Amino acid sequence: MSPENYPRRRDGSEYYSKRKKPFIKDPLSGAERYARDKDGNQLYPNSEKPFARNKHNEEYYARDVQGNEWYPLQHGKSVIIQDTNGRFYLAKRSDGRERYPRDAKGNEYYLQKDGKPLLLRKEMENITWHETAKGIN
């Protein structure tokens, strides 16, 4: 039996079939995988549940060809992975730095816990501030 593949367009990009479950499983790892565009960037499906699951059954973000994770959008706003314990997982750049989600206007925003913003950290514990269309906040 041959491995299941996404259907392909003429340009080589993969797409999600409307008749099947959104994700196919990699036969070697057992993890669900995202479809890819012609350049190799992973793509999210148009669905209420946009995240694929790894071999540990944990949701994970799609990546571009440089290895940067990116957020899917629903109603113009970033969708964030949250585990069953309520912990948020932010998308990361290829260098490991976390990136803030964006609102419908394209502004980065802080996640809140107990009414207090959760700040991102870089190496050396420098704070990374979020950015808005007007600059850094």
Outline the structure in words.
- 0% of the residues lie in helices and 28% in strands.
- It is mainly beta and 137 residues long.
- The termini are far apart.
- Residues 1-51 are annotated as: Disordered.
- Residues 1-17 have a biased composition (Basic and acidic residues).
Question: Mind sketching the topology for me?
Answer:
Layout: E1 24-25, E2 32-33, E3 35-36, E4 42-43, E5 52-53, E6 59-60, E7 62-63, E8 69-70, E9 73-74, E10 77-78, E11 81-82, E12 88-89, E13 111-113, E14 116-118, E15 120-121, E16 127-128, E17 131-132, E18 135-136
Antiparallel strand pairs: 1-2, 3-4, 5-6, 7-8, 9-10, 11-12, 13-14, 15-16, 17-18
Proportion of beta-strand residues = 25-35%
Q: Largest sheet, if any?
A: 2 strands, antiparallel
What is the string of helix and strand elements? Answer: EEEEEEEEEEEEEEEEEE
State the distance separating the first and last CA atoms. Answer: 55 Å
Assign a percent range to the helix content. under 10%
Class derived from helix and strand content: mainly beta
Q: What is the C-alpha radius of gyration, as a whole number of Å?
A: 17 Å
- Low-pLDDT segments, ≥5 res: none
Strand order of the largest sheet: 1-2
Q: Quick check: average pLDDT?
A: 85
**Strand segment tally:** 18
The tally of helices reads 0
C-alpha geometry: globular
Region (Disordered): 1-51
Biased composition (Basic and acidic residues): 1-17
